[in-house]
Input
Amino acid sequence: MKVAIDASVCDGKGYCKRFAPEVFGLDEWGYGKVLVEEVPPEQEANARAAVEACPLQAIRTA
Output
């Protein structure tokens, strides 16, 4: 599973980092960023939870 954050949509609430800190972090401006594009199998459930939690649906999976 791969993940990406649409920077033009993200508003920096940080839900992604709260749900999957091994996959998502925050950049220097406080907006979400992907730490690992290819999500390890043991982190997929957390990454999916982050996708669901994002209020602006800024996270995409493939």
In short: The first strand starts at residue 3 and ends at 5. Helices lie at 15-19, 44-53.
